[in-house]
Design brief:
With 448 residues, the protein is an alpha/beta fold. Among the domains are: 145 residues, Rossmann fold (3-Layer(aba) Sandwich), CATH 3.40.50.720; 145 residues, no CATH class. It has 20 helices and twelve strands. It has a six-stranded parallel beta sheet, sandwiched between helices. It has a three-stranded antiparallel beta sheet with strand order 7-8-9. Strands 10-11-12 form a three-stranded antiparallel beta sheet. It starts with a strand and ends in a 10-residue tail after the last helix. This is Alpha-galactosidase. Keywords: Carbohydrate metabolism, Cobalt, Glycosidase, Hydrolase, Iron, Manganese, Metal-binding, NAD, Nickel. One of its GO terms (molecular function) is metal ion binding. Belongs to the glycosyl hydrolase 4 family.
């Protein structure tokens, strides 16, 4: 019986989606699913949900739950990670300390001071998981859903021997949004996307061999469409291609938007006008929430978390598949039914004008032979240049995390496009020092 291990299974909503994804495939139902989390209460809720899915559908699936990571990893074939080191307490520091200095992050989990420090907290735990995997399940595939995606995967590639892939839903999600904008069924289009996580580019977007970019570009002048994706349409206008990441998230990876109140207001317009259809849903938005938008979402939801999860556990559970790649990878590797995903992998020549060894997001063929990244070649020069501004931060953050060199972390944040647009180097050093001091309990690699 194959074994799939969930690390961070207390993330109940995401774990539920992955469970229904996996168990929607008949060939994957004869599986042991090991749920692991350090929070016994949340773990018990996920276990209850999983057991209900199995019992109601009369599946042969075996569900086990444990707070012992090594027990969960032993003999695993696939390991899916969804952890958040430091939880909301640390995340609030990622947002609020930089905000005090004038750095306005929308999400703060991928780049910038927030993304760098989230990576610094995650990497030591990931290295522990990897060491356990090298001993207990050396052939297992590690599926990473945890941000900062590129920083985490780069550290794993550099310091461990485990097979891993980073997974995100922005490529397929944004492609579906584009189809809505130009009124075409998603099933009718094909596209080529490549770049880095949260900053990949649709190099082709076609229907029956016909280029759809003229139709997409025409939507720049449609205010009802433009307001949904301000950042993406601005990049389309000035750099010629549509980016994969959400307009709010993308706004914090570049120096152009989040230093200007008018741009920030424009980017967050949908949260105020149509909150039920925007980032985080209808949870109540103020102008103040535009900095740390996702933190605000998490804090509001956390207030009623246990009640909401109890309701989820007792509600109807439909065996429907989401657009997440995880179950499709496992299905392809177990059954041989080929699929194509957009995975985050080590750049071994797939994108020729991005640094070798960095983490890139490219199309990958998946079958019984595993995950096979495809060759893309050169990105358009302007797109590679934008990607490299983020890769510079990632590389320095990884080096600092693996060596405990604080200077690398100062330099990583100094290279961040948004931070450098609003602070000088002395101010950045002072801000980073404050973040080190506040988060010392999660940063064992550094002398603080």
């Amino acid at each position: 019986m194959r074994k799939i291990t969930f690390i961070g299974a207390g993330s109940i909503v995401f774990a539920k989606n992955l469970l229904t994804d996996i168990l929607s495939v008949p060939e994957l139902r004869d599986t042991k699913i090991s749920l692991m989390d350090i929070d016994p209460e949340r773990l018990a809720m996920t276990e209850k949900l999983a057991a209900r899915i199995v019992e109601e559908n009369d599946f042969p699936t075996v569900i086990e739950a444990t707070t012992d990571r090594r027990e969960a990893l032993k003999d695993a074939d696939y390991v899916i990670s969804m952890i958040q080191v430091g939880g909301l307490e640390a995340y609030e520091m990622d947002i609020e300390i930089p905000r005090k200095y004038g750095v306005n992050q929308a999400v703060g989990d991928t780049l910038g001071p927030g993304g760098v420090f989230r990576g610094l907290r995650t990497i030591p735990v990931y290295l522990e998981i990897a060491r356990d995997m090298e001993e207990l399940c050396p052939e297992a595939l590690f599926l990473n859903y945890v941000n900062p995606m590129a920083i985490n995967c780069w550290a794993l590639n550099k310091a461990t021997d485990i097979k891993n892939v980073g997974l995100c839903h922005s490529v397929q999600g944004t492609a579906a949004e584009i189809c809505e904008y130009i009124d075409l069924p998603y099933e009718d289009i094909n596209y080529l996307s490549a770049g880095i996580n949260h900053m990949a580019w649709y190099l082709k977007f076609e229907k029956d061999g016909k280029d759809l970019y003229p139709q997409i570009k025409a939507k720049y002048d449609d205010p009802d469409v433009y307001k949904h994706d301000v950042t993406k349409f601005e990049f389309l206008k000035h750099f010629g291609y549509f980016v994969t990441e959400s307009t709010i998230h993308m706004s914090e990876y570049v120096p152009y938007f989040r230093k200007n109140k008018d741009w920030i207001s424009n980017i967050h317009r949908m949260q105020r006008e149509q909150p039920e259809n925007s980032y985080g849903g209808d949870i109540g938005w103020t102008t103040e929430d535009e900095s740390g938008a996702y933190l605000h979402v998490c804090q509001v939801r956390n207030e009623s978390y246990l009640e909401d999860m109890e309701e989820l556990i007792n509600s109807e559970i439909k065996m429907e598949r989401s657009n997440e790649y995880g179950s499709h990878i496992i299905e392809a590797m177990e059954t041989g039914r080929e699929t194509v995903i957009h995975g985050n992998i080590q750049n071994d020549g797939q994108i020729t004008n991005l640094p070798q060894g960095s983490v890139v997001e490219v199309p990958c063929l998946v079958n019984k032979n595993g995950i096979q990244p495809t060759y893309v070649g050169d990105l358009p020069t302007q797109l590679a240049a934008l990607n490299r501004t983020n890769i510079n931060v990632q590389e320095l953050a990884v080096e600092g995390a693996l060596t405990g060199d604080k200077e690398k972390i100062y330099q990583a944040v100094m290279m961040d496009p948004l931070t450098a647009a609003v602070l000088d180097m002395d101010q950045i050093r002072e801000m980073v020092d404050e973040m080190f001091a506040a988060q010392r309990e999660w940063l064992p690699n550094f002398e603080i």
